[in-house]
């Protein structure tokens, strides 16, 4: 019985080694989270001053009437009103974002018409 045990364990076993070492994975496998870019307020939506309208890299959209641009090219509202996206005839390849005060108003404003302005009038009789 001991002899049969020794015979079974003495048989050679086959071992294979890798012919090509696999590349290490320590330098791979990382990714940064998305930057949450894009349009935040769409055409016709109501905004108040300071609302972010578009977060972008570069000037995919340009600031129009009543819209400011931050140092990272973020477009934000300067006045309360409604968002309008439009193209200007003088710059046909540029897309603009503007704010209008009335819901029915359109942009761009024709050159022969005055710019609509919002005045916060002070009641002088109350003073």
UniProtKB/TrEMBL annotation:
<keyword id="KW-0689">Ribosomal protein</keyword>
<dbReference type="Pfam" id="PF01016">
    <property type="entry name" value="Ribosomal_L27"/>
</dbReference>
<keyword id="KW-0687">Ribonucleoprotein</keyword>
<keyword id="KW-0496">Mitochondrion</keyword>
<dbReference type="GO" id="GO:0005762">
    <property type="term" value="C:mitochondrial large ribosomal subunit"/>
</dbReference>
<dbReference type="GO" id="GO:0006412">
    <property type="term" value="P:translation"/>
</dbReference>
<dbReference type="GO" id="GO:0003735">
    <property type="term" value="F:structural constituent of ribosome"/>
</dbReference>
<protein>
    <recommendedName>
        <fullName>Large ribosomal subunit protein bL27m</fullName>
    </recommendedName>
</protein>
<comment type="similarity">
    <text>Belongs to the bacterial ribosomal protein bL27 family.</text>
</comment>
<dbReference type="InterPro" id="IPR018261">
    <property type="entry name" value="Ribosomal_bL27_CS"/>
</dbReference>
<dbReference type="InterPro" id="IPR001684">
    <property type="entry name" value="Ribosomal_bL27"/>
</dbReference>
<feature type="compositionally biased region" description="Polar residues">
    <location>
        <begin position="1"/>
        <end position="27"/>
    </location>
</feature>
<feature type="region of interest" description="Disordered">
    <location>
        <begin position="1"/>
        <end position="37"/>
    </location>
</feature>
